[in-house]
Design a protein that fits this description.
The chain is α/β, with parallel strands linked by helices and about 500 residues long. The protein is built from 16 helices and 18 strands. About 35% of the residues lie in helices and about 20% in strands. α2 runs parallel beside α4, α4 runs parallel beside α6 and α6 packs antiparallel against α10. Bound molecules: ligand BES and zinc ion (2 copies).
């Protein structure tokens, strides 16, 4: 899809004019033909209302598409991302390949026009994602040729450099998010730990990002007992992926480290999962994919920060050497971990990565992981559960997430949770001795591997990382969402 800024005074010929309207809007003279549809109740500006008028040509356009933004008083930037996602889907359904979006009419947040444009552009770019590389070529090619390919954004400020830059930045962030989605959507047999490492290298080409990949023997030599242990049940070698971007004025400036769970398939291991929905466990590397993507966007935006991404990647399988319940592993920082349930493997591989990240003395560590089913019970798929004991860091996260429209919810993490994951035979048990608060006890487990003086937050994205089309218009019906990519990028932008 090619997106360009066009002077609204002289729009080019296009198929469809797109307008975002609130319930309070009235039409200009030019658009008076829409009046009767307001009266009939078909085009009222109600939230998520889609109104498509074919063949009623106004000036340069054959069709009109109006998307409802809802009540003007309740608008936020997410309303625009949402409307753009809906617009994209509707244009595809109507087989419109060329459209022009009247930004001046649609923008009711004049004071923050840039952020509004960014949200609109992201809605279109993110809405355009689909995963069909394993479907018959000819069918998808024909379908693709009916997708929106040319989108003009009409504004009287089309020459303003900052607006062009906003669209370019929205594209970088959305492309990175769509890359993360693709990595998540790829099935386990096409997205092994070594495949993930190769994709990271490929994506980093030409960006100045340094990529280092450890193989099994290096992982062993570096005493990553958790990652090595979990990988034992699989014929696929584990990998530890490190990506470094140095954008700060001094290369010595402490980096932000983003750690992501890269479990390329989680069968549960010997404590095997039930068959139903086990296919979804190909998404268990979304934390890894999403931090790789965030780092990539940060580098492409040339933000003046130092950021490192670290991804422990492995499968969790049931092979003859697999972990058995009761086995004890030793993590990078020397703590021993009793594997009471082989399905609680994410924390075992993150343990090493967090300990290693702490050794680098970073300014902050943020980790993202599809860590617990319990977070889905607690928050559904609408919020990312966020755990930190650091009030200051939480405020920063909350303010960045507010800007990107990605809902985060602060979850409890305290000494009670720590008590629950002590083991009778090792320093820690990988499951709680108590039934409840499974996401908090998982976070308490991770905490043991982060230096006390490093501000740290853990994001449990098990719910928000996939199948969110029930509430978001710019994600695919089924599949990975790229949760937290935008927020991590925004965080790097806001706080450094
Ligand atoms: N990858 C899963 C968590 C998960 C579950 C993500 C459902 C997405 C959807 C994780 O490795 C896991 O299996 N966790 C266990 C932990 C339990 C054994 C303490 C869980 O949540 O059931
Ligand atoms: Zn598991
Ligand atoms: Zn898992």
């Amino acid at each position: 899809m090619i997106v360009s800024l066009q002077d609204s005074a002289k729009p080019k010929q296009s198929e469809t004019l797109i307008l975002f309207a609130t319930e309070q809007d009235s039409w200009s003279k030019e658009l008076a033909y829409l009046d009767k549809f307001k009266k009939s109740g078909d085009c009222t500006g109600k939230k998520d209302e889609v109104f498509f008028l074919r063949g009623h040509s106004v000036a340069h356009f054959q069709n009109t598409l109006v998307i409802g933004l809802g009540d003007k008083k309740e608008l936020h930037f997410e309303s625009y991302r949402r409307a753009a996602g809906l617009a994209y889907t509707q244009l595809t359904t109507q087989k419109c390949t060329k459209a022009a979006f009247d930004f001046d009419f649609s923008n009711k947040a004049e004071k923050s026009g840039d952020q509004c444009l960014q949200a609109c552009a992201e809605g279109f770019f993110l809405g355009a994602y689909s995963f069909d590389e394993f479907k018959k070529k000819s069918a998808t090619k024909n379908e693709k040729s009916k997708d929106l390919s040319d989108l003009q954004i009409l504004t009287k400020n089309a020459k303003a450099k900052n607006l062009l830059q906003v669209v370019e930045e929205a594209q970088i962030i959305s492309d990175a998010t769509n890359l993360a989605r693709r990595l998540g959507d790829l099935p386990g047999n096409k997205m092994t730990p070594s495949d993930l490492a190769e994709e990271a290298k490929k994506a980093a080409k030409g960006t100045g990002i340094k990529v280092t990949v450890w193989d099994r023997s290096k992982i062993k030599a570096e005493r990553f007992g958790g990652l090595l242990g979990v990988s034992l049940g699989s014929s696929q070698e584990p990998r530890f992926i490190i990506m470094e971007y140095k954008g700060a004025t001094s290369v010595k400036k402490k980096p932000i480290i983003l750690v992501g769970k890269g479990l390329t398939f989680d069968s549960g291991g010997v404590s095997i999962k039930p068959a139903q929905n086990m296919d979804e466990m190909k998404y268990d590397m979304c934390g890894g994919a999403n931090v790789i993507a965030a780092l990539l966007a940060i580098a492409k935006l040339k933000l003046k920060v130092n950021v490192t991404a670290m991804v422990p990647a492995t499968e969790n399988m049931t092979g003859p050497s697999a972990n058995k319940p009761g086995d004890i592993l030793t993590a990078r920082n020397g703590l021993t971990m009793e594997v009471l349930n082989t399905d609680a493997e994410g924390r075992l591989i993150l343990a090493d990565a967090l300990a290693y990240a702490s050794e680098q003395k970073p300014a902050i560590i943020l980790d993202a992981a599809t860590l617990t089913g319990a977070i889905i019970i607690a928050l559904g798929n609408s919020y990312t559960g966020t755990f930190t004991r650091d009030d200051d860091l939480w405020k920063k996260i909350e303010s960045s997430a507010k800007k990107t429209g990605e809902p985060v919810w602060r979850m409890p993490l305290n000494d009670h949770h720590v008590k629950d994951i002590k083991s009778d035979f090792a320093d820690l048990a990988n499951i709680s001795s108590f039934r409840g608060a499974g996401s908090s006890t998982a976070a308490a487990f991770l905490e043991h591997f982060v230096d006390k003086d490093i501000p740290w937050a853990h994001f449990d994205i098990a719910g928000s990382a996939w199948n969110c089309s029930n509430r978001l218009t710019y994600v695919p019906k089924k599949g990975a969402t790229g949760a937290m990519v935008r927020t991590f990028v925004q965080f790097a932008r806001d706080h450094f």
